[in-house]
Every structure is written in structure tokens, then in C-alpha cells.
């Protein structure tokens, strides 16, 4: 059996075991990678069914800002009269200090938010590139649809190639283990979500783990003896609906914990400590990024990782919320980058969100669901220090539906570039 | 009508915090007390100060409403003989999910659960929807409390359509503002909704807010009671069109909002959306079209009945038995795991310390902890991630071995003075699984290199082994619904006559 056919067969069997349909996985779907360069601009929806990215030579990490982050607050067009007209002073900030001088998106000056100083430093060091007016063509303004589109790697939910998340598709559609340096044994963990909840992007994956905080390792409750008990129970009840999943997950917990360095005295996992000069904040998304750093250090073959950062749905009292969230985000990214640099660990990281927010603020001092958003690409080989994408402008006739920042770059183009820079 | 009001033993839950200061410099003393769960029956004015408004309650005490509601739910699950009733309550709690770790929402949770969820979950959907729309927990969570004419806050309106009523499949987003193109719109029966409906519905709810001391112009302020109030001055009174239905200008107080709720509650897409979720949650992860549409039919047929949701439930009970048991197994909630184990081993858990809440909330998303309004996921795969599976195993062992002071139980109950490991395990198979499961006991003992014929005297080791037994896949899952016979017995309804 050819490897591709084998993968399809095993994928179909696996999905069936999860109760998920396998829709239209064909040779063509697997071949899309080579034939489909400009996925977002295709006229024929059949041609842009799904996202299969090239292999990333360094681990690819996505930090997903849940709720639809207001990119117009991250990098604000404070010299644009249309922006000033749409947002009253209490919905803006006054630049000064590190953000006194704007960066340019084409000819449009954009000012860093006061909480984003670490990002501006990464930008100046050429390790971070903001990407303006990112999104997709579909008109949805629903969180859950927009997140699903971005996590399945599709352009709309109208035509779907399969039930997979795009990170799962990456794992299944190629041999991720082959080009990976494995530290010990057979255990590999190509996909990891540093969350309590497994993201849609990993649905259907065969090897995946979802744990938010690995700072202290992940000991098996009751130790090796209770792991053995669970293993035996799952074998005895192997036909039970949850047994395969329980067994695999229990094994992963046990094996993963063994891969972390221990205190020789009591055998307990040593707490993770950053090699970098910038400490991880004890907040999201830093907790998750620290877990990813620990996995990279443990060399378990991590290829794709995901961290959710929640709370960006700022329908009211936006300014204070965004200040706090952006401080957490900036601090986390700076800490992660300094840790990776100190360890000489290559990586590529994308910060993205399901949509941007309405240009005009509402009367709750918040903003409602919009369209075009902002993304960041960051990493060891990123050619940053410049603004990517094309700024569509904020005049009414340039806005999507006359109200929202338009989309000029498909989000998958951002992911592709992040991999090209990996 | 089936009653799902709390019926729990009174306990004194520990409240402990250090001395501190309010922002204005006033001091509050340290507290270490065991207090009754007094907030469960509190009215809104009593709960309002827990939002922090007015700085009347010390900051560390403001999480008390959340702690009480979480403990009360565990107590209720332990106390009930009909755990399926609690699963029904949790479905509706998740359907109208609110994020209880937000300070303003948190304060009102006991009232929310009592008057919106438990009060209406066996009643009429439209009434439950209306109660949710006017409750401060929802008004704060989805921001309608700050929505004003001019640029209305769209948060509530959007989730009303997408999550509470018509559902995602009915969102015809690519039509955006072309309402005439929505199938059925020109005859007044649109099959779905578009963004324009969201915007117009948001206008309809302007002025639906909370008495929280806000100024309403002319030197007047709202009282601070936490109660719902309609502020005419904040309402957008002009004409609207929602779901192809025309709203007159100046239609009267709350008329616009009530009309939206009615249109949504009675829309066929709502029945279908809710039916799909119900079948998925209560019967199978792979709902068939037949099952969904028959459930939707019952929902629609009884839409004006005060027992609409009871009748829908009865339909689920009757329909479920047509599917094989293996397809209907659902993952047990952490509360249910604790309750089922405690019941099996005759443990009456002591919860006064409240410390069990920590591990309980690591075994699944905690009650009221889901941040976004779609509520926690209902899929085995997402309930058994590494984090949550680890939490489950920890929970079973911790309860069995009394790691959190919940109490000790006698594993040698009804066993002879000289008993073997084999006898010990066999003793607990039926209470845990409903019948003999020797293969599970053997698996545990051989995994622990324990000879079943050896004598067991170590009580801690005995508890540990039985706790491991409760980690078995069979104990981690259950049928969500009662059998028709159980249903008939508990409800007095006609479920037996299929």
C-alpha cells in the first residue's frame, strides 16, 4: 500500500472511531500543496478547499486571540481623520515615549499601543512583523464560525474538504516524525495545545496532547502503580467507547513526564526555568508558551503548537481591557523569544485572531464584531522590522460593508509566510 | 411539574481571608468562619454588593456566590436519587452559559441558577429565554446593560440568535443586509437570520439594563438593587425590521425586545437547533436527522405549553431506547463521579472545607468557568484531554483515599474479619457497576502484583484499590437519561407507554 493510501485508510478508520465523517479526502486534496500557491485568491471554491502547508523546518506556534482582537488598538492609525472621527478620545491613546514615532504600513503611520513596548522592541530587532488587514473572504461576523474557518484552514464553511483541523491535517498528511530530532525512545509529540481545552485546529489528530501548564511536569496521579492499573483496565475494557482515547492519553501523560529532568534526590520533575533574560509573566498566554518551551527543550519532536489567549471580545470598556491583555501578550512573547534565543532554538510563531472589530465604537466604550484583523509573525528567522500586507484605508468606500476594516490578505498567506521564515 | 430546586443538607462552608483595605483606605478584618450557604436563596439587592459596586464587601469575599453555587451543585448531585435531573439542569446552564469568573456576573449566580435555570428548565422555553434576557447575570455578561441608542452594543443580540435560539446553521451570513433574499422572508417566514437582524435586534434591546446606580440624565440615578430595569431614555424607539417582521416606531416600553424574544423562541430553526443539541447531549454524539426532527416537532408542537420542556424530555427518554447502549454512553461530570462513588461506598462526603472544589475543577471545565458564550464542549474527545483525564484519575483516588478531608469509608464493610483481596474487590463491583465485573477486579490486582487470595488488612491500601476500580472506563461513563420505567416512576408522566 502506498503511504498516501495507508494514511487515508487509517485516517478514515480513526475518524470513524471518533464519530467524525471523512468527507472527500482524495488524492487531489493531498496534492493541493503543490498545485495551489495562492489559496486565498482562487475563484473556484473547489480549488481552495483546504490548507495543507509545506513542512515547517522549525516548530510552528500559533497564539490565538479568542474573541476577535481589535488590531486597530494594537497599531493605531492615529493620524487618520477617519479613525479619529470613528473613535472618541476615550477609545484612543496618546503616543509619547517609545511609541512617539509611528511605523509605516505603506504610507499610513501606525502607532504602537502603550502596552506593546516589548513588541516594538522585537519589531526593531527585526524578529517580528505585523501583518495588517488579515482575514478571509467569508462575510461571517460570528466568533464561532470565524474561529472554525481559521482552525480548519478553509475559506468558508460552505464547502468543507474533511472534518479535520488544519494542524491535525498537517500531522496526518505527512510524516512529521521523519525530519525530527528525537531525544529518546519512540515517543513523539508532533502536536501540542498548551490549553485546558483542545482547540478545533487539532481535531482529528492522532498524536496530540492538551495541557496548559507543564512548569512542574505532569505527574500521573498515584504514580506508576496507578498508571499500570488504568492501562490494565483500558485493555480489559478495550471495546468500551472511551477506552482507546483514555489509554492513549494516559500513556502520553506517563511518557511525557518521563522526558522531563528530575531532581536526583526525590525523583520529582524539576520546575522549568527559562534560559532567557526576560521572565515569563504568570498569566496567559505566557503559561502556555512556557509549556511549549519546556517541550521544545525536552526534544519530543514537537512540530505544531497552539496557545489560546482568551478575553478579546471587548464589546464594552475596551481601553482598560486591551491594555491589560496586550501587556500580558507582549510580555509573554518577549519572554518566549528571549528563552528561545538563549537556547538557540529556532521557531516560528503567529499571533492571530478570528476577526477585527468595528471601526466605529459603540456607546458602551467598546467595539462590536468586524472583519479585517491584525496578525504578527515572530521567530528566529523572521525578516521582521517591516509591516506586511496592504493597508486598505478607513474611508467609508474602502471599508468592508462600509463599516469594517477590509481584508487584503488571506490568513493562510500569513501562515505560509511564517513557515517560509521557519 | 418536576422540581429541580436545590434540596440539599445545610452545611457550613469555610470562608477564609486575610485582613485588608478597600481602595478608599477603610480596613476590613481577617475572616476564618464556617458559614451556611446563605446566598443560594438571596434576592438581587442582597447579591448586588458582591459585584464590588460601592465597596461594601471585601474583595476576597466577592467570590463567595460562585463558591456557594459550585458546592451546592455537588451537594445536590450527592443528595438526589435522580441524577439525570441534574444533567438536564446542566444542559440548560451550558446552553445559556455565563462566565462566572467575571466579577459582575459572579455576584448574581445563585439567583441566576435558581430563577432562570432551575425554575424554568422543565417549563417553557420562551419563558426561560425571557427570564434570561432580563437577568443581571446575562445583562452584564453579554453587555446589554451598557447598550444605548445611537450605537447599540451588539453582543447580546448576536449570541441570542446564534447560541440561544436560531443557531449557526440559520445564520445566512453571505446575505448580510439583503433581507429580501432570505428564503421565506417575503411571506414573513424567513428561514434564517442575517447581520442586519443582529443590528436591529441590538437596537430593540437598548435600554434593557440593571439598577446599578448609573446616571440616567437630569440628575437622576438608578438605585443599586441589581434588578432589571427598562430605561426609556436609552431605548432606540424608531422602526425596525427583525426576521422580516416590521416593528412600529414608539411601540411601547419593552415591546421591541419582547417581540424579538418571541420571534426567536418560536422560530422553527430554534426548535431544530435545540433539538440537535439535546439529542447530542442526551442520546448520541451522532444524532440522526429523524431523531432531531422528531424532537424539534415536539418542541414546536408544545411551544405554548407550560410543560414544553418536560414533554421534550419525555420524547428523548422514549426515543433513546431505540439505540444500542454503547452508542449512548456519555462521559460523567466530575460532580457525578464524586456522587456516584460516594453512593456506592456509602460515604457521606464532608464538604465544609471546600477544598474538593480545586480538584473537582481540574477534571472538567468548572461550573460557570467557560469564558465564551457557546458553553463548554459536548464531545468525549474534548472531555478526556490529558489535563482532564489526569484530573479525573486524581479525583477518584483523592475521594477514595480522603486526600481533601471529604471523609473516610469502610472498605471492609460486610466482609469477614479475614478477607482476601479478591473478596474485597468483588464486594464493591456491584455497588460501582451495577453487577459483577470480576475482569476489572482481576485487572487491577494483577497490575498491582497482588495475589487475590492474599489476606488484606491494610485499610488504606484497600481504599486505594477500590478507588482505582472507579477509574475504569465503565465508571467514567453513563447513560444520560433514565429508562422509560424510571422516568415514569420519578415524574408521574407517561414515559412507559412507548
Question: How would you summarize this macromolecular structure in one to three sentences?
Answer:
The complex is a heterodimer of chains A (422) and B (498). Chain A contains twelve helices and eleven strands. Chain A has 422 residues and is α/β, with parallel strands linked by helices.
**Proportion in helices of chain A:** 25-40%
The main pleated sheet of chain A reads as: 8 strands, mixed
Biggest sheet, spatial arrangement of strands of chain A: 7-6-8-1-9-10-5-11
SS field, number of helical segments of chain B:
23
Number of structural domains of chain A: 2
Gyration radius of chain B (Cα, Å) is: 25 Å
Characterise the protein shown here.
The complex is a heterodimer of chains A (422) and B (498). With 422 residues, chain A is an alpha/beta fold. Chain A contains 12 helices and 11 strands. Chain A has 2 domains: 1-18 and 216-271; 42-212 and 277-421, Alkaline Phosphatase, subunit A. Chain A is 33% helix and 12% strand. In chain A, a hairpin with a 2-residue loop joins strand 3 and strand 4. The longest helix of chain A is centred in the C-terminal third of the chain and has 26 residues, at 318-343. Chain B is mostly helical and 498 residues long. Chain B is built from 23 helices and 12 strands. In chain B, the strands form 6 sheets. Chain B has a two-stranded antiparallel sheet with strand order 1-4. Chain B is globular and about 85 Å long. The mean pLDDT of chain B is 96. Classes of the chains: A alpha/beta (422), B mainly alpha (498). At the A-B interface, helix 6, helix 8 and helix 9 of A face helix 8, helix 17, helix 18, helix 20 and helix 22 of B.
Amino acid at each position: 500500500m502506498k503511504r498516501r493510501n495507508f494514511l487515508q485508510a487509517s485516517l478514515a478508520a480513526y475518524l470513524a472511531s471518533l464519530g467524525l465523517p471523512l468527507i472527500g479526502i482524495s488524492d487531489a486534496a493531498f496534492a493541493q500543496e503543490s498545485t495551489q500557491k495562492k489559496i486565498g485568491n482562487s475563484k473556484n471554491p473547489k480549488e481552495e478547499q483546504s490548507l495543507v502547508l509545506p513542512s515547517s523546518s522549525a516548530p510552528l506556534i500559533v497564539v490565538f486571540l479568542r474573541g476577535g482582537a481589535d488590531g486597530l488598538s494594537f497599531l493605531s492609525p492615529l493620524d487618520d481623520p477617519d479613525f479619529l472621527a470613528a473613535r472618541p478620545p476615550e477609545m484612543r491613546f496618546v503616543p509619547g515615549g517609545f511609541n512617539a514615532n509611528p511605523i509605516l504600513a505603506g504610507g499610513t503611520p501606525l502607532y504602537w499601543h502603550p502596552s506593546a513596548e516589548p513588541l516594538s522592541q522585537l519589531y526593531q530587532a527585526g524578529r517580528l512583523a505585523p501583518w495588517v488587514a488579515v482575514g478571509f473572504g467569508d462575510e461571517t461576523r460570528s466568533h464561532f464560525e470565524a474561529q472554525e474557518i481559521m482552525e480548519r484552514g478553509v475559506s468558508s464553511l460552505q464547502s468543507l474538504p474533511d472534518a479535520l483541523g488544519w494542524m491535525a491535517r498537517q500531522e496526518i498528511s505527512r510524516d512529521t516524525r521523519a525530519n525530527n530530532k528525537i531525544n529518546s525512545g519512540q515517543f513523539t509529540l508532533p502536536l501540542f495545545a498548551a490549553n485546558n481545552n483542545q482547540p478545533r485546529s487539532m481535531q482529528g489528530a492522532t498524536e496530540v496532547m492538551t495541557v496548559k501548564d507543564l512548569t512542574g511536569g505532569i505527574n500521573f496521579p498515584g504514580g506508576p502503580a496507578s498508571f499500570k492499573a488504568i492501562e490494565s483496565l483500558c485493555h480489559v475494557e478495550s471495546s468500551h467507547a472511551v477506552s482507546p482515547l483514555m489509554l492513549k492519553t494516559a500513556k502520553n501523560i506517563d511518557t511525557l513526564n518521563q522526558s522531563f529532568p528530575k531532581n536526583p534526590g526525590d525523583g520529582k520533575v524539576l520546575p522549568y526555568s527559562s534560559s532567557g533574560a526576560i521572565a515569563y509573566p504568570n498569566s496567559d498566554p505566557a503559561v502556555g508558551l512556557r509549556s511549549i518551551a519546556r517541550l521544545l527543550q525536552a526534544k519530543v519532536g514537537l512540530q505544531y503548537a497552539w496557545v489560546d489567549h482568551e478575553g478579546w471580545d471587548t464589546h464594552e470598556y475596551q481601553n482598560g481591557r486591551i491594555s491589560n491583555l496586550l501587556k500580558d501578550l507582549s510580555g509573554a512573547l518577549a519572554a518566549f523569544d528571549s528563552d528561545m534565543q538563549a537556547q538557540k532554538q529556532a521557531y516560528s510563531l503567529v499571533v492571530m485572531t478570528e476577526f477585527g472589530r468595528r471601526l466605529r465604537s459603540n456607546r458602551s466604550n467598546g467595539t462590536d464584531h468586524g472583519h479585517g484583523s491584525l496578525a504578527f509573525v515572530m521567530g528566529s528567522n523572521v525578516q521582521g522590522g517591516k509591516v506586511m500586507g496592504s493597508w486598505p484605508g478607513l474611508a467609508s468606500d474602502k471599508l468592508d460593508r462600509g463599516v469594517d476594516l477590509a481584508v487584503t490578505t488571506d490568513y493562510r498567506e500569513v501562515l505560509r509566510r511564517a513557515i517560509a521564515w521557519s | 411539574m418536576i422540581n429541580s430546586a436545590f434540596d440539599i443538607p445545610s452545611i457550613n462552608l469555610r470562608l477564609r481571608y486575610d485582613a485588608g483595605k478597600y481602595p478608599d483606605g477603610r480596613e476590613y478584618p481577617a475572616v476564618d468562619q464556617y458559614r451556611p450557604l446563605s446566598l443560594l436563596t438571596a434576592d438581587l439587592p442582597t447579591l448586588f454588593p458582591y459585584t464590588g459596586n460601592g465597596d461594601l464587601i471585601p474583595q476576597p469575599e466577592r467570590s463567595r456566590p460562585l463558591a456557594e453555587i459550585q458546592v451546592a451543585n455537588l451537594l445536590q448531585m450527592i443528595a438526589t436519587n435522580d441524577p439525570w435531573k441534574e444533567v438536564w439542569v446542566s444542559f440548560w446552564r451550558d446552553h445559556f452559559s455565563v462566565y462566572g469568573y467575571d466579577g459582575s456576573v459572579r455576584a448574581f449566580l445563585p439567583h441566576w441558577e435558581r430563577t432562570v435555570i432551575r425554575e424554568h428548565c422543565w417549563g417553557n422555553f420562551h419563558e426561560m429565554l425571557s427570564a434570561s434576557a432580563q437577568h443581571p447575570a446575562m445583562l452584564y455578561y453579554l453587555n446589554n446593560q451598557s447598550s444605548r441608542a445611537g450605537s447599540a452594543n451588539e453582543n447580546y443580540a448576536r449570541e441570542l440568535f446564534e447560541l440561544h435560539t436560531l443557531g449557526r446553521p440559520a445564520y445566512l451570513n453571505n446575505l448580510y443586509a439583503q433581507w429580501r433574499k432570505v428564503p421565506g422572508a417575503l411571506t414573513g417566514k424567513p428561514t434564517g437570520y442575517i447581520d442586519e437582524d443582529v443590528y436591529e435586534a441590538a437596537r430593540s434591546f437598548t435600554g434593557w439594563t440593571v439598577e446599578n446606580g448609573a446616571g440616567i440624565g437630569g440628575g437622576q440615578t438608578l438605585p443599586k438593587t441589581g434588578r432589571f430595569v427598562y430605561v426609556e431614555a436609552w431605548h432606540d424607539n424608531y422602526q425596525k425590521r427583525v426576521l422580516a417582521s416590521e416593528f412600529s416606531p414608539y411601540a411601547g416600553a419593552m415591546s421591541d425586545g419582547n417581540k424579538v424574544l418571541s420571534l426567536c423562541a418560536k422560530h422553527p430553526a430554534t426548535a431544530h437547533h435545540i433539538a440537535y443539541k439535546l439529542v447530542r447531549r442526551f442520546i448520541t454524539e451522532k444524532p440522526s436527522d429523524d431523531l432531531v426532527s422528531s424532537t424539534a416537532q415536539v418542541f414546536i408542537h408544545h411551544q405554548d405549553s407550560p410543560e414544553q420542556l418536560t414533554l421534550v424530555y419525555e420524547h428523548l427518554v422514549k426515543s433513546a431506547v431505540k439505540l444500542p447502549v454503547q452508542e449512548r454512553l456519555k462521559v460523567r461530570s466530575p460532580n457525578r463521579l464524586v456522587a456516584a462513588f460516594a453512593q456506592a461506598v456509602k460515604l457521606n462526603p464532608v464538604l465544609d472545607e471546600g477544598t474538593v472544589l480545586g480538584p473537582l475543577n481540574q477534571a472538567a471545565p468548572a461550573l460557570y468557568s467557560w469564558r465564551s458564550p457557546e458553553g463548554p464542549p459536548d464531545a468525549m474527545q474534548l472531555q478526556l484531554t490529558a489535563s482532564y483525564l489526569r484530573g479525573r484519575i486524581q479525583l477518584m483516588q483523592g475521594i477514595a483515599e480522603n486526600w481533601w478531608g471529604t471523609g473516610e469509608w469502610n472498605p471492609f464493610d460486610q466482609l469477614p474479619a479475614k478477607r482476601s483481596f479478591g473478596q474485597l474487590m468483588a464486594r464493591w463491583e456491584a455497588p460501582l457497576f451495577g453487577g459483577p465485573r470480576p475482569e476489572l477486579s482481576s485487572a487491577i490486582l494483577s497490575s498491582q502484583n497482588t495475589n487475590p487470595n492474599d489476606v488484606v488488612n491494610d485499610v488504606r491500601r484497600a481504599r486505594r484499590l477500590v478507588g482505582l476500580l472507579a477509574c475504569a472506563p465503565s465508571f467514567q461513563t453513563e447513560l444520560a437519561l433514565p429508562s422509560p420505567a424510571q422516568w415514569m416512576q420519578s415524574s408521574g408522566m407517561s414515559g412507559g407507554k412507548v
